[in-house]
Amino acid sequence: MTNTHPDIDYANKVILAPMVRIGTLPMRLLALEYGADLVWTEELVDKRIIGSVREYNEATGTIDYRKGKSLTFSTHPDEKGKVILQLGTADPDLALQAALTLKQDVAGVDLNCGCPKKFSVQGGMGAALLTDPDRLCKILENLICHTGMPVTCKIRLLPTQEETLKLVKRIAATGIKALTVHCRTKEMRSTEKALWERLREVVEAVKSVRDIPVTVNGDIFQYADIEKVKKLTHADSAMIARGAQWNPSAFRKEGLLPFGEVVRAYIKKCVDTENVFQNTKYVILCMNTEDSDHTRSELYRSMQKSKSTEDLCQIFGLMDYYRKVTSEQQAKRKTENDETENENKRERDDEDKQEGQIEKKSKSE
């Protein structure tokens, strides 16, 4: 299929990594505000996406995809052209259905071939695809041929360099637009040092097949780390994961901002988008956790005890902002409801009028 989406230049980019429960809309918007060029969604599984219904949220200005009462995905115009769907799948047909469901509101689709978590691997998704290259490549080829979207892939290193080089050559040959490599094997923990030294040869192998950008992921904690790792690995772009989780201002060329300033900016995004409180709380409790003093602080304990977004706004001195934004949202929602009711009334009046005309005509006959 001809590419119906604008092409994305994946070279020389700084990217927010896909992180489960972290990479929801407020984090993506904040990362972009701090300097990220592209943002990946958290991994969304194909079956969760399929059947979701697209809705415009008048109160927040977001596009929301819902399945029953459950929110599948939410996006905002501020990330248009910059948000990439990270897809969890083990089936070419389900992958295609899921990608097409969200096609209108994402800039591209990235196949998750790196997640080592049990729920992903047991379903044949994520890192399980690394040892099933036929299935992996079929999924990529189906997406490339039938979505009209830029398609990319994110992998981990295999145990041996020989296996890794063989795999990336096959992946590059499918026609993907870019490849991200997390410089750890699926068995390695995040606390183990990333194997940057293995990536240069991987980059060369990819470019021997097709000259596409390769993005490095693993142990990049702030903007200052990027040039060092790119020089060592010859990668074209860099993806930040835990560094952004701990402090989203990791994307700033000027350096990191203090925790208090960052968390207030994040909470504002959550208020703006009506983010689910449980997710908001989870994300801010993950911030700054590399600092053991922080996790033992009174502030951290007060965040743990919070029961609502309003509680968090109270803790961080944002009550004026909370009242202003929520009041505006309620007013927009009331206006929308009034307009809907007026439209329904007009439809009922039209139906009554038509029925009256039919009854009048029947009597005259």
Structure description:
This protein is α/β, with parallel strands linked by helices. The chain has a domain at 14-257: Aldolase class I (TIM Barrel, Alpha-Beta Barrel), CATH 3.20.20.70. It has 15 helices and eleven strands. It has helices at residues 25-34, 46-49, 92-102, 118-122, 133-146, 161-173, 199-209, 226-233, 242-246, 259-273, 277-286, 292-295, 298-305, 309-315, 319-364, and strands at 14-16, 38-45, 53-57, 62-67, 70-75, 83-88, 108-113, 151-156, 178-182, 214-217, 237-240. Helix 6 runs parallel beside helix 7. The longest helix is centred in the last third of the chain and has 46 residues, at 319-364. It starts with 13 loop residues before the first strand and ends with a helix. The model has no long low-confidence stretch (mean pLDDT 94). Residues 327-365 are annotated as: Disordered. Residues 15-267 form the DUS-like FMN-binding domain. Residues 327-348, 354-365 have a biased composition (Basic and acidic residues).
Keywords:
365 residues, eight-stranded parallel β-barrel, TIM Barrel, globular, three-stranded antiparallel β-sheet, alpha/beta
